[in-house]
Amino acid sequence: MVARSGPQSEPATELAGRDWERSLLVERARGASLGEGQAVLLRGPAGIGKTKLLSVALDELTPIARTVLTVKCPESGSTAYETVRGLFEPLRLTEDGAESSPLLSGSARLALPALLPDRTDETGPTDTYSVMHGLHWLTAGLSADGLVVLAIDDVQWCDEASLRWLGFLLRRADDLPLMVLMTQRTGHEQSRPEVLDEISDTLSCLIVDLPPLTTEAVGEMLHWAFDRELDSAFSAKCAEITGGNPFLVRRVVSRLRGDEISPGAEQTALLDELGWNVVARSLLDRLPRDAYAVATAIAVLGGETVEMIAALAGTQPGPARAAVEILRANDLLGDGLDYAHDLIRSAVLDTTSANERVALRERAARLLNDSGRPAEEVAVQLMLLPGDPAPWMVGVLLTAAESAEHRGAPVAAAHYLSQALKHDPDDVSLLAALARVLGQSEPAKALEHLEHALGLVRDPRTRAPLVVQYALTSLGAQNSLRAFELVDEVIDAIEAEAGAEATPADRALRTLVEFAYLISGLDEKSTVHRVGRRFRDYVPPQGDTAEERQLLGMLSSLGTFQGRPATEVAAQAEKVLRIGDVAPGGWAVLSASLPLYLADEIDPALVALTALIEHAQRTGEAWTHTLGASTRAEVYRWAGNVGEALSDAQLSFDVVLQESWAPNVVMPQTALASALIRRGEPARAQEVLDLITRPRLDRFTLEYHWYVMARARSRAALGDLEGALTHFYRCADSLAEGGIGNPVLAPWWFDAADVLAELGRPHEGLDLIERVEESVHRWGTTRALGMFRMARGVLTAGDAGIDLLTHAVHTLADSPGRLEQARAEYLLGRRLYRRGDAEGARERLRRSIDQAVLCRDQLQLNQSLPALSEAGGRLRRSTASPVDTLSGSERRVAEQAIAGATNREIAESLFLTQRTVEFHLTSVYRKLGIRGRKELARVLRKT
Known about the structure:
single chain, mainly alpha, elongated
């Protein structure tokens, strides 16, 4: 289909001096049609011919394009995703019954908040990534039938939400038959150049700067216009005064024709007199008063109905239509009620004073508002007004902000709220609303607004919600210390205010504040001590409300950090998950999964995390999906399932790289590094960890200790035992500094004991494990006890050490600690061989190998296999499997393919591109020696 809402068709013969650019656009489109997404940004000053070149190019692309969608961005401004709606409007996806359209299947349905013209429902704010994810898959669905061309004229005036989506789309366009054509006016003050830079910096975007026409090209235009060869001096003079600007050349032609002047060498002096007045000024000066008023009204509300234009001009529709005909007869208007070029609009507005323009825009806003137009549409005019908004404008701006937030455009919402705040900079509710929409993109700026709001409020009950918001926003800013102090103050103030007569509302508010206290206080290790003291004798709530369950989840995390009995914290965490909360943000699930899996309650943790991941897949929330999958990877590794751990971790890491989140994100990298170490790839694990450059990382409670443990384990796997030991001791000191007493959260002592035994320093090892004995018994899981016995056994010489290792093996056999059991069997086998019991050693080493194969623990296999050979043993069966060669991403993609998912469905659910999925499947087929999906299920299930 071809849908033109922007550049209209122009005769190709009128395009002079642009043959190279036309050929270039066609060549790029042919490349795009082969599934190699392309973008071209045509840049140049006003009137240089960008729109005409775009229009002619689109005509030439029509035979090779399956779908052509165009839109022109208005200079007067636009609402959030208005450019997107203009592009996709011909598809009629918002009409009744359109929900069943194949184009809105799967993740594409998530695009609807951006496509609906007026988004004010009760569903709450929409996740920005979710909307862009949906628009991407809507475009991908269109491209399934062939080349899609998206043409955006005057992209410098595009709304920011649509611009951000274009950047999002182009970063994923490598595998799409997609051509994005854009024109950008230069020499114009751009309000959001950084967004345009993001687009132009993508690898698929070619920038073409259109130069002025040569004298020969100007002569060619004049020849077409007057149907005869003109004097070269006249052509040269025309090129000089117009600067080779095609639009101004055409205005010269129009003026000469209107005055019935025959061009020639004797008329070159007249060209000097015309100068830049050829645009519109001389015509405007001759317009009747009513026609002039209509001209200025069109400059403000171009594209509106004649009735609206008449109302703004202060006249009736009849005279307004007559004025429109005068303007059209003078070639000032295009086909609709808008100017033929932005230069004409600018010239018209320049004839009015600044005060007149302000009055016109305010009147336009009132007219739009009184006629029931959506608030976002009215707000476009209000955003152009200087000074502080009137009270009625504030209401419109607030409604517009709510609508923008609901459609997944928080940046647009922030612009509206910032304008509304000018009316009363001390409006606490407005400050809080502005901080909320800025929370994801600019958390530091959001915190500034919340600080301002808190400085205006003294009542504890009013401060409490602001403080909670501050605490949650601080997590994004990666500095919770100030938030913790604020929450500490407000808790005490609420207690003093409510006293013994606390109302149900007071208790609910306190629950929310206590949750904020825990989440901010447990984020960094310097405040963990104080959190523990406050909640030492605390009676937990029943978990009847979502707020209480969030609080219980954080309390179970606190108990885990403190190393309280595993049975106690697990029971608390299970209560959190009993209801199955997965939103908003998955706080309850994520906080409860940590104590559950460390307490060896693996299945409930996996069920809850899987539900969270599936929820994020349905709603397009990439960050929640990444965080959930990274956490599940750690659970799988703890459960001894290295294959599944690698699959989740690798896919999370792929999304982090795709979205450029790597420097400040920690968990996906540490999860992947930990799985890679077990996979026998410690060097690659080091490379992954090197991508982390987060400031103040050593201050954080979870991320830092998991990061240091991964560093230490990779060094040990590479043979750098002293380097590994340094990292293990660094982890120990940091945990002690934070008062974190859980022995298995980051079990440095367990790994350090093994390293010290290899280094021949058993006494040092025995001294350090004595430091954790009490905490191990207090935590009390079978795995922890078995790990402790194994650590002591590897450091104890003679038969006593063998007895301890034997005891450890039996203990671990009754736990989910399969990796630890494989290690214990290996250590016991080596000790038996050294004592001279080769037969007993071979039996233990075979058990170690069997367990390591089940776990896909290549790190352990690399040690157990040579030890068995040294003991004179042979394998009962091969440990090699083609499946072991698959990467984590390949494994997860293959699993979904076996389940019957299409390539597109796999890509949607894993937040990947279809080309990435195709690449992974091709690699899977090659590694497994098969030809396609039909053989995939047989091979994987067999292995």
